[in-house]
Structures are given as structure tokens and as C-alpha cells.
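Honest question from a wet-lab person: if I give you the sequences of every part of a complex, can you actually get the arrangement of the whole thing, not just the pieces? Trying it with mine:
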Amino acid sequence: MITIASTVTTPKITIDTQKNFYSFEGESYPEDVNAFFDPIMDPIVVHLKKQKDATIEFEFFLTYFNSASTKVFYNLFMLLEDVSEFNSVNVKWKHHEEDDTAEEFGQDFMEDLVNVNFNFIAI
Amino acid sequence: MTLNSFRTLKGMIEAENVIFCYNGYFSQEIIIAVNSMIKGKLSSDETKMGISQKVLYMFVEQAQNITRYSPDQIQNGDQTTMSYGSIAIGTENDKFYLVCSNRIEKANVPALREKLESISMMSQEDLKALFKEKMRSEADEGSKGASIGFIEMARKSSEPIEFDFIENDETFDCFTLKVVI
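Yes, you can. This is the full assembly:
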């Protein structure tokens, strides 16, 4: 299991390829989104594409993210939709009860997902 | 600047109910510091989280636009750059507004003007459709973000976004954008 500690502008990221559990928690507005996320996301993508009949869990609790980060997460969700054809994919989208901005972003993502099991959790 | 002219400037800023006003060089460090100030101020005012999150979102988008696209950049000793621009955050009619401004090369004005004119006239439904389209496609040429910053600002605004381009000199115009939450 790999844990990447959060910084002021990047979320805490947990990657457990054995259990197929992944989480993103915190704020995300790095100056160069691709320089931060590409080295993290690329191996996850490679791993997920190899999965079959697996249960894959993703947890998000993003309190703030910028528009460039939105695209990174959207691309991830599109990949999850692809791999959900051969696997069971569950997403927990956590947000503060009063944070309708984070909730609306979750809804934008969820609308384009058919097979992924997407759940909102208000905290 | 005389003490009197500084007081006049300060008076003009305060008359616009400004909680933050900055005219100078933006860097990621400045954005982080201001973010922390906005969070503290809005939290002490007991601003609803739904509103304060939008203020933060708009501020980071506007400030990162300045750091990415302002032509007035200088190099720090550590190879990072700082970019010149202006942002004011305040309240009017019980709503938060954010105004930002930076210079832009005249050659880049027509494309940005066209993009913003189109966005400013769109309904929420059309903005959402455009957001989804941009999510599925590659970023616009010359874009250092995801080409969705302005679309998202328009989606989170309670009023149409306002903007203009005013002649600065032979090479540059001054671009100004206002959003209301």
C-alpha cells in the first residue's frame, strides 16, 4: 500500500493495489496538475486495465479542487466506467453536508457513469 | 504616492466593500496565502459553506489564470515565475463579487472574446453540456489548464459573467472579468 501525504495544494492519496482500494482526500489545486497527477495516475490506470472479476473501491473526499484537477478525475471516472464492464466498481463520493459545490461536481461525474456504483455520503 | 492619495485609494477600495484587493505579482505561494485568508475571514463571518467554497473556487481560477496567461512575468531566483495582475473580492447587494484583470496580447484577444461572449450568453444547461464536451476532449490549443475554468466560473455565477478588453498600448489590451456568486 502506498500513501502519498497531502500538501496545502494536493490531496492525500492512498493506493492499495492488492485490495483494489484507492482514496483521494483533501484539496487539489497544484500549479501544474499534470506534473503532479500523471506519475500517480499512470500506474493506477495500467493496474486497473488488467483487472477482471475484481471488486474495485474508490473513495473521494475532496473539499476543493480546481478546474484542471476536475479533468484528471473525469478521465479517471471514464476509465472506471470502462473497467466496470469486467469488474464491480464502487465509488464513495464524500462531501460536507453544506458543501453543494463538491456535491454538484460529484453529480456531474455520476451522470456519465452507467455501470459504476456511485454513492454520495454527506458528512 | 502621497499619504493623501494613498488614503483616497484606500477609501475607494473600502467603498466597494472589499475584503481582499491585490495588485501585483501572483505566484502559487501568494494564492495559497490568500486562500487561507479568505477561508479565515468567511468562516469568522459565518458565511455558508456553499458560498465560501464558490468564492475560493473563483479566486483560485482567476489567480491561476493570471499566473498562467499574464504576459507580464518575471523569474524568481529559484526558476519559478511570478505574473502581474489584479484581483478584488468584495460584496455588493449581499452577494460576493470577484473582479480580476491582467494584460493580454492583442493577437490573443479575438479568440478569448469569442469564447467569453459565447459562454456569457449560455443557459446553465448549455454550460453544463459544454463542460461535458470539454471534459471528453483534449484541452484547447495554447491552454495550460483544461479549458473549463471560464465555463465553471459561469456555471457557479448567479449572474452572467461581465468582461471587457480596453486598449493598453500598441501590443497589449487590458482584460477585466467580473463574476458574482
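Two things worth pointing out. The helical segments of chain B are 3-15, 28-44, 49-69, 109-120, 124-136, 149-156. The beta strands of chain B are 18-26, 73-75, 81-92, 95-105, 162-167, 172-180.
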